[in-house]
Amino acid sequence: MYTLEQLHEEIKRCTRCPLHKTRRNAVPGEGSGRLGIMIVGEAPGSSEDEQGRPFVGAAGSLLNKTLSTLGVERGDLYITNVVKCRPPGNRTPTREEVAACLPYLLRQIEILRPRRIIALGAVSAGALLGLIGRQVERVGDVRGKCFRGKVAGVDVEICVTYHPAAVLRNPRLRGTFAEDLAAFLGGGGLERYF
Ligand code: URA
């Protein structure tokens, strides 16, 4: 059986899609996942590309602040992205890039066996809910909700909220973002199944 460390090494050497040509570092993911919860963003930005670590830029500081307000240790989660390499200029990853990278996320899920996956934003929600046969038209239709399904042989709950970068652009979303994370990280997502 493959270990998470071996998978991380494979991701760092990946050439499956053209993003490997422009990246500085691939960003596999980090954290112990001890709480059985995985957080999945869209793709690395500039700071993440520079450091090879997920959510270490402005969106990451908002995520970190929200987690610490909730009393959750970031290191007890596992944090990753759907796409592991930075799209040039932080553009939205293409369908092809998501498809090329998705096998890595599936293997991360297979190894870590999380009970809950928190999808941040439309790209992550679309990719993850697509794996359990749900189409996402707009993130607003699914945010605040959790969906049960089997992914990579694992029974998981996929819970959706805004991407922290969207919250930074629109501070009115801040309260909802924090409430969603509180529910999803505290087990309160239980009333939110669909
Ligand atoms: N935005 C993401 O989606 N992921 C990161 O790791 C950083 C910013």
From TrEMBL:
* Enzyme's top EC category: hydrolase
Which reaction(s) does the protein catalyse, per the Swiss-Prot or TrEMBL entry? Hydrolyzes single-stranded DNA or mismatched double-stranded DNA and polynucleotides, releasing free uracil
One GO molecular-function entry:
metal ion binding
> Can the keyword Membrane be found in this entry's annotation?
no
User: Superkingdom of this entry's organism?
Assistant: Archaea
EC numbers: 3.2.2.27
Q: Which NCBIfam families match?
A: Arch_udg, UDG_fam4
The record's family statement is: Belongs to the uracil-DNA glycosylase (UDG) superfamily. Type 4 (UDGa) family.
PANTHER family, A to Z: TYPE-4 URACIL-DNA GLYCOSYLASE (PTHR33693:SF1), TYPE-5 URACIL-DNA GLYCOSYLASE (PTHR33693)
Protein name, as recorded: Type-4 uracil-DNA glycosylase
* Organism annotation: Pyrobaculum calidifontis (strain DSM 21063 / JCM 11548 / VA1)
